[in-house]
Amino acid sequence: MNKEDIKKVVLAYSGGLDTSIIISWLKENYDCEVIAVVGNVGQEEELEGLEDKAIASGASKIYIEDLIDEFVDDYVFETLKAGAKYEGRYLLGTAFARPVIAKRLVEIAHEENADAIVHGCTGKGNDQVRFELTVKAFDPDMPVIAPWRTWEIKSREDEIEYAKARNIPLPMEKDEFYSEDRNIWHISHEGLDLEYPDTEPNYDKVLKLSVSPEKAPDKPTYVTIRFDKGVPVAVNGEYMKGSDIIRYLNKVGGENGIGIDDIVENRLVGMKVRGVYENAGGRILYTAHEILESLTLDRDTMHYKDKVAVEFASLVYNGLWFSTLREALSAFVNKTQETVTGDVKLKLYKGNVINAGVTSPYTLYDEEYATFGEDGVYDQTDSQGFVNLYALPIKVQAMMKKKVKAKKEQEKKEQGK
Amino acid sequence: MNKEDIKKVVLAYSGGLDTSIIISWLKENYDCEVIAVVGNVGQEEELEGLEDKAIASGASKIYIEDLIDEFVDDYVFETLKAGAKYEGRYLLGTAFARPVIAKRLVEIAHEENADAIVHGCTGKGNDQVRFELTVKAFDPDMPVIAPWRTWEIKSREDEIEYAKARNIPLPMEKDEFYSEDRNIWHISHEGLDLEYPDTEPNYDKVLKLSVSPEKAPDKPTYVTIRFDKGVPVAVNGEYMKGSDIIRYLNKVGGENGIGIDDIVENRLVGMKVRGVYENAGGRILYTAHEILESLTLDRDTMHYKDKVAVEFASLVYNGLWFSTLREALSAFVNKTQETVTGDVKLKLYKGNVINAGVTSPYTLYDEEYATFGEDGVYDQTDSQGFVNLYALPIKVQAMMKKKVKAKKEQEKKEQGK
Amino acid sequence: MNKEDIKKVVLAYSGGLDTSIIISWLKENYDCEVIAVVGNVGQEEELEGLEDKAIASGASKIYIEDLIDEFVDDYVFETLKAGAKYEGRYLLGTAFARPVIAKRLVEIAHEENADAIVHGCTGKGNDQVRFELTVKAFDPDMPVIAPWRTWEIKSREDEIEYAKARNIPLPMEKDEFYSEDRNIWHISHEGLDLEYPDTEPNYDKVLKLSVSPEKAPDKPTYVTIRFDKGVPVAVNGEYMKGSDIIRYLNKVGGENGIGIDDIVENRLVGMKVRGVYENAGGRILYTAHEILESLTLDRDTMHYKDKVAVEFASLVYNGLWFSTLREALSAFVNKTQETVTGDVKLKLYKGNVINAGVTSPYTLYDEEYATFGEDGVYDQTDSQGFVNLYALPIKVQAMMKKKVKAKKEQEKKEQGK
Amino acid sequence: MNKEDIKKVVLAYSGGLDTSIIISWLKENYDCEVIAVVGNVGQEEELEGLEDKAIASGASKIYIEDLIDEFVDDYVFETLKAGAKYEGRYLLGTAFARPVIAKRLVEIAHEENADAIVHGCTGKGNDQVRFELTVKAFDPDMPVIAPWRTWEIKSREDEIEYAKARNIPLPMEKDEFYSEDRNIWHISHEGLDLEYPDTEPNYDKVLKLSVSPEKAPDKPTYVTIRFDKGVPVAVNGEYMKGSDIIRYLNKVGGENGIGIDDIVENRLVGMKVRGVYENAGGRILYTAHEILESLTLDRDTMHYKDKVAVEFASLVYNGLWFSTLREALSAFVNKTQETVTGDVKLKLYKGNVINAGVTSPYTLYDEEYATFGEDGVYDQTDSQGFVNLYALPIKVQAMMKKKVKAKKEQEKKEQGK
Fold this sequence. Notes:
Four copies of one chain form a homotetramer.
Chain A: E1 8-12, H1 17-30, E2 33-40, H2 50-57, E3 61-66, H3 68-82, H4 97-111, E4 116-118, H5 127-138, E5 144-145, H6 147-150, H7 156-165, E6 179-182, E7 187-190, H8 203-206, E8 221-228, E9 231-235, E10 238-239, H9 242-255, E11 260-266, E12 272-278, H10 280-296, H11 299-317, H12 324-336, E13 342-349, E14 352-359, H13 367-370, H14 381-390, H15 392-416
């Protein structure tokens, strides 16, 4: 791609200082039209006044796309069904928000006949990868411009200086702030004192959506979540769309100190990073889903699915949402979810999500089989044969060792003569 | 094995009604000498007066074996290092207590020239498998007698009747009781109302070691655990042996409502069962170990080890402790633990185990690499090339799809002519 | 089940001595009507005169079911797509023939209102498991009678004696014969000298379908196989149904000494067994399919699918065809096969199946990317950044080790003062 | 790193045109002393006259290091024990030759106080990664110079022109040649017509070590290989060191057309490449090792090890030899090899490696267990119980489905009223 061929670009725009500066930088460096695109995935407060701001910063046009329900239904719940948690903990909130936005960017770039797509991700994180993999999946020939990897701005201070020199309005901000990413599913916090894993986070300063367990009420809250084929469809008996379920659970979960994770995780780009996540609704939904699966999935399927979940999580984390492997794993997952239907009651109490009872028409648990009395399903005399055959490889190995040992002793004895 | 060849047997004895009756039944049915063996793995209250009781019940001799430290050092911590949790939750307390006892049974049977080993496990559970696999691993030709699978006693009522008819003293018991298994690592509870997974447990009735989060103190407790190569060696700066670490953590953990698990799990013998576990110390140690590994293991090792942990847990759960595969997986695990050394501080608060800071001389996290400023380790311009090559398979697939699509459109056009 | 409730049974009948005797034994022991069912899965010579034979042996009725195409399309090719080979070699010929037959047995049992299903598998093999798991999957309450596990007949000699005493006609047979299982996909051979793994098989005596490589022609034969979404659809440009493709490839493959496997395998029931397999067509199709996938699957998908294949093979081998996990794995596999379309040319020569050229409209190999000249897809300067970030975890670990070493040396020095 | 700080470099030197030019280029561009290092891993013909050539090209010094036995014992056989084959086929010959050489390069660089290490790998292949990962593992701060990724020479033609302009002697070569890599374990061939996977290779032109099966003798050759704990130690009864075993087997294997692989493989750097490999000795050793393991490993260990092998192969292929994960996997593997001791007889015949008998003192196969007669190890009546419990999850699922169906029908009926 030659600089002079870039006449029009589509920019993933947030309204923050970073992307405001990028508009200015693009116009200076490429002399091109800039179309700003905001993908609304539930980041809340940041959407107001964006149009004016974008135009003021030099954009010719702005798209504000409501992607919330697509995000929840096609990405969040697809991952929830898989039970995928990166490194056993992280619910992937930032990871799958990138492909849904990048996919829309490509669509708009095509509609607008744009010559390139621009994002404001730094060169140290995972998001650049997630963005660009999605762009390449939908348009392998679309150029991507990532100013942070190439420009001379290297720090917050450089940014402010750059902005001041060009009269780009600076946001009113506290002296210090965490680097945050928010959407309907989660908020992540990085930076400042969080960069020191030997230090306990000051949760009063960090948390936005939730309170810490200590500040949560002394009385528990109960919620009942209904799943249909692995997908949450109702809360406390009331059917609602997925995004509303998450909103509701974020609220009650946040109030009860649920879903705060303090993690050192391994980035795709090879370094470790420490972050604090708020995942109130997510933690509740994952827990409920796991409880329901413990009742409705048979052992072999559950154990294999646990391994699939690990792979699924890595793919999503690494930006490979739009890959054959992720789609094939989803085909596996969806097959397993056909009977993951039922109600899970949970007690939320000061950071705890406690199983308070689960039912399913497809339950594979039956107290008749599990009780200690007599029954027709399980015949105790079967277990003798089962144990004998199950143990056969162990027995054969032990017999072999005995034979080898006896032979060696025999040889020793004969040599001793 | 012929009945008449059984002159002397070694019995896994607990002092409970089950094994007391078994002594009587063995003498009636085999006319054999019965040697009672109690393996002390920390079941606490049940050891007093056992000798008299066993002799009174008809045993010729009793061994009371202190296996606690062997259990902790060679089984519990070996599994902790692996991070193995069955079905993502269960810390395997009962599962690895069986092999340590069964191994000692075989040793005593050899010392005593016994003709068979007897256990009191039912035919519906996992423990029969765990016992017998271990026996076969150490002596493939040793007969095993499992009265519950063959005798006419089928229920609690049958037992009581049988005991009364023979003047076997009945334990003083409440009308109802949960089926429990206790050792230094955990207590499990099954039966009664727990058989109904739609019902929340009455924790006041169930719990023995811990209080529920609601009853825990309003102030958090902090503990700092030191690990050396994956093994806990000190608490709050004080070095102590493993069993004492567990005892201490069970106490403070139990007081703070930690480690209560309510699980529907898949038994080896094909049915699901619901149990409540108390694992105060175990939960604290697992959490601490995971936090330390997040700092000291590289990504590839950690991700693969997560899969190994799943296999390890299944093997232990299924009684395959003494198997080549378990030993080979331990060899893998031990190699990974060489740098899992350091201190983890935890805040215990009403059921929560919260990371309060971690340090290690072998940390792979370095705030210098992770910060957003400039540094020598990470060069942002590298990421352009990284992303391009990482994305290459996605790009090639997208190019292929584009080409196929273009060809199809071309063919359609030509057909249209 | 009570003996007297068994008025009518459905028997998996082969016409061999075993199942002829079973008819007689069933009538003697259960006084029941016996309906013989032959599932034709391509066992060839054994079908003629079966009706007369069954009636003469005492059956009231016989079903001869042509299951060949169902077998090939729904079982064989489903497994081929998965690339599943048990223990890396065995193409599962016997394993997936059992469920297709057992499924039909249940259907007929339902049509006939039979009270039980009877099979002639011994208690030492895998087939009893495969039969009974399928029966239970389709009718969990249907009793199964397995005479070999319970009757007093324990050997070939017992059988002959039993048959003579009841005038059951004995087959004309050589003094010795291998235990064989044949269907359209394969022939297996076990027993006699094959029981000694230290001995090379006498292939002239063993082989039925194929010649040994030494006896194959000196000129190679070429075949071209077309796949559509992973399924073979044409040979040498001629479209034909799956069973005809296998028949053709068995013929040319067998003539060229292809697909003879001599394996010690691990049975589900815990013992090892040695068998020789003839899989001429199967080996050709698996090889062709693998070659085509090497061109059309991306790396991540291929590598993961290789692991899925291992699990798939174990499930099929262990009789778990009709299980949620097998079906979910097939959902995964089918998603991956969407682009496994193309032509594979193979040279068959004295036991060798040699790649002689492969093409696909969905090829991900492009000589443009792979050549050493310049091109637009791959930019060599990207690799610097790729290597640097890919190596980052290694670098960080090495830096940590250096730091730890330096610190230790420093401490030593200070102690030395 | 600044150019001017580079006073002395260590170069991985082969004597070919590429690395001869690099010496000249280094001196022109860095004005530095160049120390040439040749790691002899069995590349044969290329070693003679190297010293003169290197000095003539401008090197100040040359190291010719005999790494053959280290390569065989610590890399090749370590991988053989793991059974690792990349993508099921490739025996990793080039992949593990890179770390052994790079490790020595770092050692020499330290001895010589060199300022950088230089290699001649292109930016399109795996070898650059393998080299640089090893360098970083042993010295994270050592700069690496990779001229092919940065200089202006982009093709064979450019190279020749560059050499002519500087009087660098050109090798006498046929007009066309394949890109080859040779060591004691294998030869790889890439390029020219091999870049077209639709074309059968002209093996007469390609092969160096082996003949094609068609050209192999009409009489088979037998070899017997003895393994001790997974490592080959003797051939035909004669003990010899590992490298001599490989040399011998390369010879007889090559004569019999063994080990020719034609593969499209997935490179780490994201593209597919087609190569032909000659692996005569390797193929024989892998086959023998697998046969011996089929006798001496229990099922669970074997099946898990098969998965470990896939991971091991990827790590080696991707240059991660010196990584914690590879070392931990080796610890696993070595534990499994303790009983992989015995003799394997093989028939080599026109490309076929045929099992001709295997024995081991640690055999887990015993014809006594496997035969069809009666015996004491296996009791057929056990299988009834085994099948019943093994099938229990299937049965419970089927019962659940039946119940759900019945309930639905009942509801329908009631609605119909």
